[in-house]
Amino acid sequence: GELPQWLDALGQMDALNSLATFAYNHPAYAYPTLLDKADMAAAKAGISSDARKAGAANTGSNARFILRAKALGHPLMHRDRCVRNDIDMEKRPFFIIITGANMGGKSVAMKTVALNVLLLQAGFLVCAKKARMPLFHSVKMLFDDLQSIQSGLSGFGSEIVQFQKALSEVEQGYSLFLLDEFARGTNPDEGAVIVQAVTRYLNGVDAISLLTTHYDKVAEYARTHYQIIGLRDIDPEAIRRELAVTSEDGVAVIARHMNYGLYRVEGKSDCPRDALNICRMLSLKPEILKMVEESY
């Protein structure tokens, strides 16, 4: 009769031992400060941190941010290669957009947030110096490779089906919703319009939404806009000369010089134009490159 209770106790001990071992093996990780009930109530009411701080309902000096992390890193990347970024979201609408060119690391930045939130949901430390996060009702992610051969849907059709399913779950409770390059399966003009509409709609949903895109005129609808630094500070000619004297794969060389750090964009800003620089670095046929440059 007592066997189920003993098995349950052993399971709890094993889980606690796993959590302790993880913490021991990752001394640089931190356990986030959890968003308390007063913070959650203020968040749902759209009350800013300043208003909460001034009110009697404030429960602590740190009860200010909805999702905040200092030096947040990808937990599956080697520490020597891991690029750490600060993430800071406050007040409604809880919508953040990451823009950048292809190869720029937008998806890695999004997965960094997703994996750390899931670590917290499971009771583990997170890969950050410090963080303040809530526990979510659900965490929904729409990443690449959604094409469904069995159902006969195109990549774009699969995106819409998966988006509808995820959205219905997100709207059930306070959630984290992550969309990586949403609407990439259709032409850029239509895709940009669709992403703009989705962004505007999600601004009214009780969730923290994070979207990566290289479409222009989307970030203006977001609460916060981060951009991948990418190749902004790199001399394309220097990379081209390096590629000319090495047998290393060109994409690997460019990736090594790519800056995957984030910076916060103030005001309106379109996505960076790194594609032309990448074409120059990889020595695209001169006749084609000339025609591309003339069209810019």
What does this entry look like structurally?
The chain has 296 residues and is an alpha/beta fold. 40% of the residues lie in helices and 18% in strands. Strands 6-7-8-4-9-10 form a 6-stranded mixed beta sheet, sandwiched between helices. The protein has a 4-stranded mixed beta sheet with strand order 1-5-2-3, covered by helices on one side. About 9% of the residues have low confidence.
**Hey, roughly how much beta strand do the residues contain?**
15-25%
Helix content: 40-55%
Tell me how many strands there are.
Answer: 10
Low-confidence blocks of residues: 47-65, 146-152
The average pLDDT score comes to 79
As laid out across the biggest beta sheet, the strand order is: 6-7-8-4-9-10
Helix and strand content put the structural class at: alpha/beta
- Distance, first to last CA: 77 Å
Counted by DSSP, the helix tally is 10
Main sheet specs: 6 strands, mixed
Shape: globular
H/E series: HEHHEEEHEEHEHEEHHEHH
Radius of gyration: 22 Å
At a glance:
The chain contains 10 helices and 10 strands. By secondary structure, it is α/β, with parallel strands linked by helices.
Provide the fold topology.
Elements: H1 3-25, E1 33-34, H2 37-45, H3 49-54, E2 67-72, E3 85-89, E4 95-99, H4 106-121, E5 130-133, E6 138-142, H5 155-170, E7 175-180, H6 188-202, E8 207-213, E9 224-230, H7 236-244, H8 250-257, E10 259-264, H9 275-281, H10 286-295
Parallel strand pairs: 1-5, 4-8, 4-9, 6-7, 7-8
Antiparallel strand pairs: 2-3, 2-5, 9-10
Helix pairs in contact: 7-9
